[in-house]
Amino acid sequence: MAKNYLIERLSFYCAYHSVFGNQLVHFIFIPIILVVTLSLASYIPLAQFAIYKFDDESLNKYFPINICLLVWGLMYPISYIYIDLIAGISWIPMSIITWFMANYLFEIYSFETLLIIFVISWIAQFLSHGLIEERRPALLDSLYESIVLAPFFWHFELILFPIGLYHDEKTQIFKNAKKIQKEMDLNKNN
């Protein structure tokens, strides 16, 4: 996919996350929401249907090869590879780590505990938008993009940009985000 598409998608998300306090809240809670959502999805009976069983029961317990993994293991990496090949491939280890963590949490916490963590995480995100960023959350403008882009943006901000990758794209993303914010501010004032 063209670099322009990557820049356009990340610029959209970046425009809603320009204040450090809001970014910090998102850096903390996006991974929590990802992992807990996967843990909660594991309570869906069909999601636990085993595609493959290991001989070692501990592997089956903490790293099951099931429908939920198939959806998780394909949805995000394929979406990200579609947006950008290298960044998408670099997400695959994160996908494996979050899957392992989700299954660990599924084994040690109750549904109710996971649900409380999930709700608190979302409340923190909404409060940070309202109180710190003073902008509505991106998901109110594009739910799918926000759900898919939030982890990808997090991946860029905390991993790819700091190691020096995508420097030119980063510059363009932040420049475009400022333009989008100006448009949002004009629309908010009208």
Concise description?
The chain is mainly alpha-helical and 190 residues long. 76% of the residues lie in helices and 3% in strands.
Structure commentary:
The chain contains eight helices and two strands. The longest helix is centred in the middle third of the chain and has 24 residues, at 85-108. The chain has helices spanning 3-14, 20-41, 57-62, 67-83, 85-108, 111-133, 143-160, 167-189, and strands at 50-52, 65-66. The protein has a two-stranded antiparallel sheet with strand order 1-2. The chain has 190 residues and is an all-alpha fold. The model has no long low-confidence stretch (mean pLDDT 88). α1 (3-14) packs across α7, α2 packs across α7 (143-160) and α4 (67-83) packs antiparallel against α5 (85-108).
Shape: globular
Q: In order across it, which strands form the biggest sheet?
A: 1-2
Radius of gyration: 18 Å
Helix-strand sequence? HHEHEHHHHH
User: Residue ranges: pLDDT <50 for 5 or more in a row?
Assistant: none
Our count of helices gives: 8
User: How many beta-strand elements?
Assistant: 2
Helix percentage range:
over 70%
**End-to-end gap:** 36 Å
Mind summarizing the main beta sheet?
Answer: 2 strands, antiparallel
Average the pLDDT over all residues and give the rounded result.
88
Strand content: under 5%
Question: Any key phrases for this structure?
Answer:
190 residues; mainly alpha; two-stranded antiparallel ribbon; 3% strand; globular
